[in-house]
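WARN  no MSA supplied for this record, continuing single-sequence
INFO  ligand: zinc ion
INFO  echoing inputs
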Amino acid sequence: MQLDLIKFISIVCKSICFSRGLSLIVGILLLFSTVSAKHRLNRKSIQLNAEVDSLSYAIQLRIFPEQKRLQGSNKMVFKPIHPKNTIEFQLHANLNIDSITLNRQHINYSRSSDNVILQVLKTHKRMQFDTVMVYYNGNPIVSKNPPWQPGFVWSKDSLGFPFIGLACESEGANCWLPCFDAWNIEPLQVKLTIDVPEGLTAVANGQLIGSGNLNDGFHRFVWQTHYPINHYGITLNIGKYTHLSDRYTRMDKAQLQLNYYVLSYHAQQAARHFEQVKPMMRCFEKFLGEYPFSNEGYKLVETPYWGMEHQTCVAYGNGFKNNEFGFDFIIIHESAHEWFANSITAQSRSDMWIHESFTTYMESLFVECMAGPERAKTYLLNQYPKIQNQRPILETFGINRQYKDNDIYYKGAWILHTLRNCIDNDTLWFNALFDFHQTFKYQIIRTEDVVDFFSARCRIELAPFFNSYLCSKNVPVLEYDIIHKNGLNELHFRLKSNQKELEMPIKMTLGKNRFETIIAGPEWQLTDLPYTDESLFQVKPASYLIEIKRRKRF
Ligand SMILES: [Zn+2]
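INFO  complex generated
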């Protein structure tokens, strides 16, 4: 990846006033005033190039589990931003189109791969809000490895009843739904009307606003969501479900509805196991603000695959198991995505680290809530060996990258943990994290927005920091040497990275068993070490994602 392709925003460095640590304040003031003067990356913003606005969907589907088939329609209502002679949306080539109308008039279309292109004629009336109605049917692609491979999951429960799920994050919702399938377009409302064979329950996003027997062998369930939703977050689940209902009392004493849909024979086990949802809600609420979809409640839905962050309808298939830290990874991870992925959504898969890094970081904060900061460090250290550093985390904008490593998860979490330790002021760090969600909730954002926000909120120029960690596969290297001279010990150190402006406050033993902060930058610096036993030298453990190398200074 070439750095000039990455468009970070630099901000003007404001004077800063950290509330503690005078020597560190002076150090950081010097550090960041120097950096801000030098560092001006390309400010040009990326256009989101969405062609539709104020989008809503009304999806109507009948599901035939035995034939692994669906039949239905999607009514797409939207404000065209720049009306053209064509309207283009997506539907997987596997699915057949029966007909399409634009504002109730039939319209001709062509298909190219997964794109459907409507030819708008002069005889077609355009409206302030256009309505495209697509009738379609067919056998949607089947996921070979859910949730990583896209498609439907046609499964059976252990009693032989259909148990059906859907996962399409990697490929997009067009694998089952005609839609404007892009990360930077979110429908503001989605109504899902789903007919399933009698005896089964269909569970989807938002609230259940109606259900009834159709007396033709099918039962209808109508779900509605009123929050902006990313396309891969739209979903449906079908099974012989039991509905468990609970409530969580928010910090402001308001009630949040908790709904669990599990296979009937798992009801008792699920009721016990899902108790951990309440302390999780408390923890995330403390760090990020209230659950972002309060009006529609929170749902866990048992699925025939591991998990997925479907908005207000979290897919759960982890077999009611806790990890060695005493929590269910899928509940905590996928639910944290309600804040990062569903509420705050990245503009494209090239910026997907925003979803996964913050979400994975929230896992460690959950451990911190439940068992304290030392245990959280142990959790992070468990993730550390999984960092691969094989390629940069940030992809060129617009590239639909298929991630083959886990660096957007574990390395991402460690980047945020490192930033917390460099800032070295938990009040500031956690206020910034809280405000980050409050500022961008329900919005689509770019990597530049993250850099810009934390720079401004923490009053630190952070472009070199993020640029170094996101745009290079290598992490910064702290090089040091200890030299004995005239009866004194000198510590020589520098920080090597792809950013010549990068300087980081790092704690190391500058006294016997006492950590002090030095500002490490690209130039060699030295300080006295008041001890002779070199084995006493260490960088504060479990604090920074850096490589530490001793090398001969002279
Ligand atoms: Zn995730």
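The pocket of zinc ion is lined by residues 333, 337, 356, 359 (CB under 6 Å).
INFO  checksum written, moving to next record
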